[in-house]
Amino acid sequence: AAVTGPTAESVAYPNIALVKYWGKRDEDLFLPVTGSLSMTLDIFPTTTSVRVIDGPADVVEFNGVTASGAERTRIETFLDLVRAKAGRGERAMVVTSNAGPTGAGLASSASGFAALATAAAAAYELDLDPRALSRLARRGSGSASRSIFGGFVVWHAGEGEGEAGDQSSFAEPIGGDGLDPALVVAVVNQGTKAVSSRVAMRATTATSPFYRPWAESSVLDLAEMRKAIAARDLPTIGEIAERNALGMHATMLTARPGIRYLSPHSIAILDTVLALRADGIMAYATIDAGPNVKVLCSRADAPHVDATLAGLGDFVTTRTAHIGPAASLTTTSP
Ligand code: PMV
């Protein structure tokens, strides 16, 4: 296919929520039930290039392979949204690759759609400020709204439904200057999860009797978390993050039928985190829609925490992350 526009290339990093997004109030617009708060990482980036082409269909290359099925459809649907906003009809060539594992609860969809939103908006000449880009990324994957920004980021639930909800549900950075924690990522399974977060969220909100109580407590967790970040109080940040994540998993476990992302290896790591705390090391766990565990601690303690987790056995591999940057456009070439 002939190239008709410049190539826009972007890089975006995953983020890990310290107060989770779990449940949508509007599935089409990706409006969340509650606000959430995350830390953008400096590992596992997604690099994506988008160029407008003169051809009959979008071409999508994902991790070096031509994408098909649901993966391709999800990207195409997102490009359709970008084209609708831009008033354009041409197809695109998308080349995207993840430095980290895909679909393993390691926020590949967050970095993925933040990178795609950034590159696609540029390729289709949509002039969006970061807030509008965050709202756009949200439509690919809710958590992607937060990966538009670096550091500590809050994603507002927004007010109202429809257009009002869409306008008011965006992410923004919240400071936390002077806080420089580490997040030790303990990967116990690189495979793609059996149940997508989208399906699991839908089932949880619809059937778990624990969902409403968790959502109500999560609103309070978010307010407390913002205070703890402003106070640069890492132990309190860790305590809130750990209880919020365990509560989210309680809502999944009590869906009908129950959904369980935690594996025996996840539990072994949770036990190790408790043992580290008993030894006076401030380490706190958070877990997303997968069995991998992320452990929040100080930069100084990270080598010890990383070595302790890596020493558990062959079933675990570790990577230590720190605060990472905002999504960015790297090149635009003719
Ligand atoms: O945006 P999604 O569909 O990848 O959902 C993210 C859900 C969690 O990772 C479990 C929580 C979060 O806030 O990132």
Bound ligands, each once? (3R)-3-hydroxy-3-methyl-5-(phosphonooxy)pentanoic acid
Which outline best applies? globular
Fraction in helix: 25-40%
Number-wise, the strands total: 16
How many distinct domains? Answer: 2
Structural class: alpha+beta
Nearest-integer average pLDDT? 95
The description of the largest β-sheet is: 6 strands, mixed
CATH A-level architecture of the largest domain: 2-Layer Sandwich
CATH class category label of the largest domain: Alpha Beta
Q: Cα-atom Rg, whole angstroms?
A: 19 Å
The proportion of residues in beta strands is: 25-35%
Structural description of this entry:
- There is one protein chain.
- With 334 residues, the protein is an alpha+beta fold.
- The protein folds into two domains: 2-176, Ribosomal Protein S5, domain 2; 181-321, Alpha-Beta Plaits.
- It contains ten helices and 16 strands.
- It has helices at residues 69-86, 108-123, 130-138, 144-147, 162-168, 197-207, 211-230, 234-253, 264-278, 302-310; strands at residues 2-12, 15-19, 24-26, 31-32, 36-40, 46-54, 59-62, 65-66, 91-98, 152-155, 171-173, 181-187, 284-287, 293-298, 317-321, 328-333.
- Strands 8-7-9-6-1-16 form a six-stranded mixed β-sheet, covered by helices on one side.
- Helix 1 packs parallel to helix 2 (108-123), helix 2 packs across helix 3 and helix 7 (211-230) runs antiparallel to helix 8 (234-253).
- The protein is globular, with a radius of gyration of 19 Å.
- The relative contact order is 0.19.
- The mean pLDDT is 95.
- (3R)-3-hydroxy-3-methyl-5-(phosphonooxy)pentanoic acid is lined by residues 17, 20-22, 36, 109, 141-143, 197-198, 288-289.
- Residues 12-166 form the Diphosphomevalonate decarboxylase-like N-terminal domain.
- This is diphosphomevalonate decarboxylase.
- InterPro entries: GHMP_kinase_C_sf, Mev_decarb, Mev_diP_decarb, MVD-like_N, Mvd1_C, Ribosomal_Su5_D2-typ_SF, Ribsml_uS5_D2-typ_fold_subgr.
- It comes from Nocardia alba.
- It is an enzyme of class 4 (lyase).
